Amino acid sequence: MPTTRAVRGDITTLDVDVVVNAANSGLLGGGGVDGAIHRAGGPSILAACRRVRATTWPDGLPTGEAVATTAGDLPARWVVHTVGPVFDPGTDRSGELRSCYTRSLEVADGLGATSVAFPLVSAGVYGWPLADAVDQAVTAIESSGTGAEVVLVAFSEVVLDLMTARLT
């Protein structure tokens, strides 16, 4: 089982091998974590995302999938972009949400990463309830088989408390 810890902070400032981006399927930037990573990392991340769209994923990155690019000006070595599902109370999309974490860790492991920082995927504008988003994240990470250290990055004290409680 990987070593997992929770911190409150700015994911763009962490000195880790991989920062995971909660991206949209277009991979061309957006709001929230996605916009922050693109702004802090500079234009080389957008250029790399455009190459991914022109080659590997011309129709956009599917929900639950992950792909790596440069980290540009971030302290991290790589950004792994993943697309979380939009929460729908009438449809169980928890498997897609867990896939964001497991696929991101598979990509990170393939890069040789020893440390990976995650935001809470789908818990912002995609509307996933915070406590369940934390539970899905930790469940996926614990079942992943990665050897990397995993850092869950909270955007608020409420989220940090939920993460800390779930990890103990």
* Helix count from the secondary structure assignment: 5
Q: Widest sheet: strand order?
A: 1-6-5-2-4-3
Q: What kind of sheet is the major sheet?
A: 6 strands, mixed
Find the CATH superfamily.
Leucine Aminopeptidase, subunit E, domain 1
Uncertain residue ranges:
none
Distance from N terminus to C terminus (CA atoms, Å) equals: 14 Å
| SS class | alpha/beta
Order of helices and strands: EEHHEEHEHEH
- Mean of residue pLDDT values: 96
CATH class: Alpha Beta
Gyration radius, rounded: 14 Å
Global morphology: globular
Task: Could you tell me the CATH topology label.
Answer: Leucine Aminopeptidase, subunit E, domain 1
**Which architecture would the CATH scheme give at its second level?**
3-Layer(aba) Sandwich
Number of domains: 1
- Helical proportion, percent range: 25-40%
Overview of the molecule:
This protein is an alpha/beta fold and 168 residues long. The chain has one domain: Leucine Aminopeptidase, subunit E, domain 1. It has helices spanning 32-41, 43-54, 94-111, 130-143, 157-167; strands at 4-8, 18-23, 66-70, 78-83, 115-118, 149-154. The protein has a 6-stranded mixed sheet, sandwiched between helices. Strand 5, helix 4 and strand 6 form a beta-alpha-beta unit. Helix 3 crosses helix 4 and helix 4 packs across helix 5. The model has no long low-confidence stretch (mean pLDDT 96).
